From TrEMBL:
The lineage of its organism: Bacteria, Pseudomonadati, Pseudomonadota, Alphaproteobacteria, Sphingomonadales. Its cofactor is Mg(2+). It comes from Qipengyuania oceanensis. This is 8-oxo-dGTP diphosphatase. Keywords: DNA damage, DNA repair, DNA replication, Hydrolase, Magnesium, Metal-binding, Mutator protein. One of its GO terms (molecular function) is 8-oxo-dGDP phosphatase activity. Residues 1-128 form the Nudix hydrolase domain.
Amino acid sequence: MVVVAGALRGADGRWLMHRRPFDKHHGGLWEFPGGKVEEGESRPAALVREMQEELGIEVDQGALVEVASAATDGGDGSPAIVIYLYTVGRWIGQPAALEGQAIGWFDFAEIAALEKPPLDVELSAALFAANGADRIK
Ligand SMILES: Nc1nc2c([nH]c(=O)n2[C@@H]2O[C@H](COP(=O)(O)OP(=O)(O)OP(=O)(O)O)[C@@H](O)[C@H]2O)c(=O)[nH]1
């Protein structure tokens, strides 16, 4: 399964994380907003669609920069997943939790402490390294 996710940084420098609904795989964990790439869809187009569905914001494909990727081979009954994380440089609208339990804005130390799916530990570390905070795991 190919998944795309977005890293949005607010004016105060905090990053947006999204809490998954409790009834879904990885329920209650905090992750970067996003979702599965559909058949015939490009990754950037999928992310633009997911930002609209999940957060109600308009994102321009030209404002997406791929920053990291991470993969699992599944095996424990869950499907193999590869996730591509993009920084979202600008958007129109105010992000809202339209599908999940909640959204929040966090600094690096706070994100390091959130309960996350395993791939997000890797993705957030790469995001922090690319943004000058490689001391935080
Ligand atoms: N969106 C997102 N999914 C992630 C992240 N990390 C991670 O392991 N995943 C996993 O990747 C899969 C993505 O599925 P999703 O449920 O977000 O995708 P979706 O919205 O298209 O699914 P749906 O059609 O079931 O609502 C889930 O198993 C999710 O737990 C992440 O940072 N963001």
